[in-house]
Each structure stands twice: as structure tokens, then as C-alpha cells.
């Protein structure tokens, strides 16, 4: 990260003692003083959910850009550099541009209490308003109803990806309560695309949509995305698309790709063709989501011939989808699976590890460098052990990688580093392969 923007971001943290404090009051006050840049941004597609938000945004971006559209993107968290959060008409924000926007919002805010996410989101809106583009893909930070991004009165569409238990301290203790918070992004008369959900969540979303009169497009009901004989099939009331499989690994990405396609098909004025969708499926990129690392320095620490995979999954649902993909890989090419895992103390670590029982041969637990919420490696190992996985703690990522050995069958292992997006960022930085 640029040293100047880093210094500003550090100052902004001090404006509010709590890292997360869901409220729209501080945000709307600052945006008013800034001249309401959120009212001057390009048309918005707003994306909420527990898992799959970022991947769905990545599919949307790839398909829109395949059609020649200029696309702004706002996502969080970043993996290596803060600049990854703000993409202006296709390009990550440059240091000088970011510094200028951060200094402007810092000056206008004039020391008032505000969270870092709120004030940096305001800076992003300034940039999105000033740089011409055709579409803004806006990812919710946390929840939806009171998220700092939820200041757009009339988006083109709202998207709600898979909802599950996460962030219970802020969003509620039940999946129904969490669904109500996520549903807060739905707006009157704006189409809302809903990914596959459990019955309880779907019921909540339908009630919330009826309350604001948002037309729903629900997976499995109004649209379907599935694999058939090595092809990706999407079907809705407008017909069937026979497409190549998405570039992003994992069967769960079919649902995310389907949500992106359903959204663009609900917005015919954007003029996205079947050819654009096909190109987007083949060109999409989203780091640290079942990403195979084939270059970089970390591979050299493993036994020759090893596979190295990276995924930022960090909750039980994330564990299930990643374990499912690893099981599919095991069926195609059998290798011992070794997990290198680090987790935050705000996550359900035992629930995350449970789907890997009987699949992974061992877990090498590590701390997450630079994170005050990192679980000690010993506690991560204890959670894995409780879930039925042999586990050992290590002092660092590099130490764990060096500890990976060939097992009795001498097959090079498949190593998966997982458990946290913060750990994923540490991996990409150490490997010399940060997001472009």
C-alpha cells in the first residue's frame, strides 16, 4: 500500500473507537456535506449476502466489460492493498487519486466521529461520481439495512447471494434475523435477484420484498443455473443459454454466475448479449477464492509436485463449499489433502472445519500476522481436532509450509491454505502475487 494513503487510513481509524458500528446517520451527514456524491454516481447494481458477494460482482464485471462497458467496482475487504477496494472504470484506484479523495473527506468530516469503513466509502462515492462509467457494482460491507453503502435510493437491481450465520454480534443470532438485515438493500420497484436460500431465509426475503414492492427473481423458481454434461446451462423465462463452465473453480460458483446472469437478463437496457455472458464466464478473475497458485515463492517451500490452493472461506457455509470442491478434485486426481488454516476469533472455527473431516489428512494451524483478532494457532488446532481432524500448531505460515511432507504413498500433497481472507492476503503478499 502507498505510505501516504496508509497514514491517512490509520488516522481515520481513530475517529471512532469501534471498528464496526452499524448506522446510517454519520454516513448521510457526511455525504450531505460533500454535496451528495452518491446521487451522482453511475447506475448501481447493489450486492448483499453472506457468501458469494465478491464472486458475483466479479462475474458481473467480467460480463459487463465483455460488452465494452466502463465499470466501477466497490468491494471489501482488500487482500493486500486498500486500493483493491476501488476500481475506477476498470482500473484499481491509483495512489495519488486515493490520497486526494481521502484527504478531501477527512477535511470535510472535520474530526467528527465516523467509522473507517463509512468515511472510506464516502471517498469512494466521490471518485465514482467524478470518473465517467456506465455501471457501478456496489458490494455491501456488512449486513445491508444499515450498511454504509445503503444510501442509493434507486439502484438498477439488488442482488442477495447465499445467506447464512455470520457476524452474529452485529446482525442477529438467527438466520432469519440476518436475512432481514440483508433484505434492507431491496428498494421499491427495483428487481431483486435472489440466489439459492434455505426455506426460512427465502420466506423472510419474500415478505420483505412484498413490503417494499420489489419484484423478485428467485433461484430455482424464476431462474436456474446448473451443469449438464460439462456445460453450464442457465434458464429463465426468456429462454435457455448453453454456456461454458465458469472459470472460477467450485460448483458453488455456478450459483454466483447464475445470479450475475439473472441480474443482467433483468436489465435489458444494458444490452448484454449471450456472447458477452459467455466471454465473462471465461475471463472472470477473483483472487483467493479457490485460487490455484502455480507461480510465486511459496510453492518452493513444498515437496516437489505439490499443488497449492488458496481460499478465503471463513464460516461454516464457506467450509462446506470449499470442502465439496476439494472432494471433487480428490475424485478426479487423488492426493493427500493438507489444510493450512488461520482464523479470526469472531468466527465459528469448529463449524468451519467439520466438513473437512474424513477428507483432509491433517491441519497445520497458523496465526494471522498483523491481525489483532487472530486466533492463536493452538486454539485453531484445538478446533480442528475437536472436529475430528489431526492438527498441529505452527508459529508462522512459512513454518507450516516447510512442515508439509510426503505421506506414506509418496504422492505429492494438495495443500489448501484457508480460514480467512486476511490470511489469504498474507499469502498473496508473501507469494509475490498480489491482485492486479
TrEMBL record:
Catalysed conversion reaction: (6R)-5,10-methylenetetrahydrofolyl-(gamma-L-Glu)(n) + L-glutamate + ATP = (6R)-5,10-methylenetetrahydrofolyl-(gamma-L-Glu)(n+1) + ADP + phosphate + H(+); 10-formyltetrahydrofolyl-(gamma-L-Glu)(n) + L-glutamate + ATP = 10-formyltetrahydrofolyl-(gamma-L-Glu)(n+1) + ADP + phosphate + H(+); (6S)-5,6,7,8-tetrahydrofolyl-(gamma-L-Glu)(n) + L-glutamate + ATP = (6S)-5,6,7,8-tetrahydrofolyl-(gamma-L-Glu)(n+1) + ADP + phosphate + H(+); 7,8-dihydropteroate + L-glutamate + ATP = 7,8-dihydrofolate + ADP + phosphate + H(+)
Cleavable signal peptide: none
EC number(s) on file: 6.3.2.12, 6.3.2.17
Annotated ranges, domain Mur ligase central: 47-263
Domain Mur ligase C-terminal: 308-420
Top-tier EC class: ligase
InterPro entries: Folylpolyglutamate_synth, Folylpolyglutamate_synth_CS, Mur-like_cat_sf, Mur_ligase_C, Mur_ligase_C_dom_sf, Mur_ligase_cen
GO molecular function, one term: ligase activity
Pathways per UniProt: Cofactor biosynthesis; tetrahydrofolate biosynthesis; 7,8-dihydrofolate from 2-amino-4-hydroxy-6-hydroxymethyl-7,8-dihydropteridine diphosphate and 4-aminobenzoate: step 2/2; Cofactor biosynthesis; tetrahydrofolylpolyglutamate biosynthesis
A UniProt-annotated Pfam family: Mur_ligase_C
Keyword terms of this UniProt record: ATP-binding, Folate biosynthesis, Ligase, Magnesium, Metal-binding, Nucleotide-binding
Transmembrane segments: none
NCBIfam families assigned to the protein according to its UniProt record, in alphabetical order: folC
Record-stated family: Belongs to the folylpolyglutamate synthase family.
Its biological purpose: Functions in two distinct reactions of the de novo folate biosynthetic pathway. Catalyzes the addition of a glutamate residue to dihydropteroate (7,8-dihydropteroate or H2Pte) to form dihydrofolate (7,8-dihydrofolate monoglutamate or H2Pte-Glu). Also catalyzes successive additions of L-glutamate to tetrahydrofolate or 10-formyltetrahydrofolate or 5,10-methylenetetrahydrofolate, leading to folylpolyglutamate derivatives.
Protein name: Dihydrofolate synthase/folylpolyglutamate synthase
UniProt organism field: Terrihabitans rhizophilus
Amino acid at each position: 500500500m502507498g505510505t501516504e494513503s496508509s497514514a491517512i487510513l490509520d488516522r481515520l481509524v481513530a475517529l471512532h473507537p469501534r471498528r464496526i458500528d452499524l448506522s446510517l446517520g454519520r454516513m448521510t451527514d457526511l455525504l450531505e456535506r460533500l454535496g451528495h456524491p452518491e446521487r451522482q454516481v453511475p447506475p448501481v447494481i447493489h450486492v448483499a449476502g453472506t457468501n458469494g458477494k465478491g464472486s458475483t460482482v466479479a462475474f458481473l464485471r467480467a460480463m459487463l466489460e465483455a460488452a465494452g462497458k466502463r465499470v466501477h467496482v466497490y468491494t471489501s475487504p482488500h487482500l493486500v492493498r486498500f486500493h483493491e477496494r476501488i476500481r475506477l472504470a476498470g482500473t484499481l484506484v491509483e495512489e495519488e487519486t486515493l490520497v486526494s479523495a481521502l484527504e478531501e473527506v477527512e477535511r470535510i468530516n472535520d474530526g467528527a466521529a465516523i467509522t473507517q469503513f463509512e468515511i472510506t466509502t464516502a471517498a469512494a462515492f466521490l471518485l465514482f461520481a467524478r470518473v465517467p462509467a456506465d455501471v457501478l457494482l456496489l458490494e455491501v460491507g456488512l449486513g445491508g439495512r444499515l450498511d454504509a453503502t445503503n444510501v442509493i435510493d434507486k439502484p438498477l437491481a439488488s442482488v442477495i447471494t447465499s445467506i447464512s450465520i455470520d457476524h452474529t454480534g452485529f446482525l442477529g443470532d438467527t438466520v432469519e434475523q440476518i436475512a432481514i438485515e440483508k433484505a434492507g438493500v431491496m428498494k421499491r420497484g427495483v428487481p431483486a435477484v435472489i440466489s439459492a436460500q434455505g426455506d426460512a431465509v427465502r420466506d423472510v426475503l419474500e415478505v420483505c420484498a412484498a413490503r417494499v414492492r420489489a419484484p423478485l427473481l428467485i433461484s430455482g423458481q424464476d431462474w436456474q443455473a446448473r451443469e449438464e454434461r460439462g456445460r453450464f446451462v442457465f434458464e429463465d423465462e426468456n429462454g435457455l443459454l448453453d454456456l461454458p463452465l465458469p472459470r472460477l473453480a467450485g460448483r458453488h460458483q455456478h450459483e454466483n454466475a447464475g445470479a450475475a446472469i439473472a441480474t443482467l437478463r433483468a436489465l435489458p437496457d444494458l444490452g448484454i448479449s449471450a456472447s458477452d455472458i459467455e466471454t465473462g464466464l471465461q475471463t472472470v478473475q477473483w483472487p483467493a477464492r479457490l485460487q490455484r497458485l502455480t507461480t510465486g515463492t511459496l510453492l518452493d517451500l513444498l515437496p516437489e509436485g505439490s499443488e497449492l490452493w488458496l481460499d478465503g472461506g471463513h464460516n461454516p457455509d464457506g467450509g462446506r463449499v470449499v470442502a465439496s470442491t476439494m472432494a471433487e478434485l480428490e475424485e478426479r486426481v487423488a492426493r493427500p489433502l493438507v489444510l493450512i488454516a488461520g482464523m479470526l476469533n469472531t468466527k465459528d472455527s469448529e463449524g468451519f472445519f467439520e466438513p473437512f473431516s474424513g477428507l483432509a489428512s491433517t491441519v497445520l494451524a497458523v496465526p494471522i500476522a498483523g491481525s489483532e483478532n487472530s486466533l492463536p494457532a493452538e486454539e485453531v488446532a484445538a478446533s480442528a481436532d475437536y472436529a475430528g481432524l489431526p492438527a498441529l500448531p505452527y508459529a508462522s505460515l512459512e513454518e507450516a509450509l516447510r512442515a508439509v511432507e510426503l505421506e506414506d504413498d509418496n504422492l505429492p500433497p494438495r495443500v489448501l491454505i484457508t480460514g480467512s481472507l486476511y490470511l489469504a492476503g498474507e499469502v498473496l503478499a508473501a507469494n509475490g502475487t498480489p491482485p492486479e
